[in-house]
Amino acid sequence: MGSNVLYIEDNPDNMMLVKRALESRGYTLLEAPNGLTGVASAEQREVDLILLDINLPDIDGYEVARRIRASGKTALAYVPIIAITANALKGDAEKALSAGCDVYMSKPINIRELWARVEAYVPAPNPKFS
Ligand code: MN
């Protein structure tokens, strides 16, 4: 099993935070700065889990999730998708889940929550480096 995590996020500070947090556990982070690049990366690369920002500059995260689930690449029907958004309203969580996301996390990103949520789907290559 691989440990490639694709993070679709337009905010460079969040990207850097998550990159450091996941690389410290041995994951490989694939970066996509907008929705369309994210969908293309999911189709072209070997991806074991997707972290998905909802507020993106082109298509929003809900649309990204729908396109990923509708892809002709079979693995993308099952790849875990964790939605991450600043819109911590109840309706947003439901919208993310109905768009095809598996779970929902709200910003600001809590690193321990992030590790726990990712590890629930993809075991950490370096679990003891906390
Ligand atoms: Mn954003």
Give an overview of the whole structure.
- The chain has a single domain (4-121), classed as Response regulator (Rossmann fold).
- 38% of the residues lie in helices and 18% in strands.
- The protein has 5 helices and 5 strands; from the N terminus they run βαβαβαβαβα.
- It has helices at 12-23, 35-44, 61-69, 90-98, 111-119, and strands at residues 4-8, 28-32, 49-53, 81-85, 103-106.
- It has a 5-stranded parallel sheet with strand order 2-1-3-4-5, sandwiched between helices.
- Helix 3 (61-69) links the parallel strand 3 (49-53) and strand 4 (81-85).
- The two termini are 22 Å apart.
CATH architecture: 3-Layer(aba) Sandwich
User: What multimeric state do the chains show?
Assistant: single chain
Structural class call reads alpha/beta
Give the end-to-end Cα distance, rounded to a whole number of Å.
22 Å
Helicity, as a percent range:
25-40%
Low-pLDDT segments, ≥5 res: none
- CATH uppermost class: Alpha Beta
CATH structural fold name? Rossmann fold
Q: What's the overall geometry?
A: globular
Task: Return the average pLDDT rounded to an integer.
Answer: 94
Task: Spell out which ligands are present.
Answer: manganese (II) ion
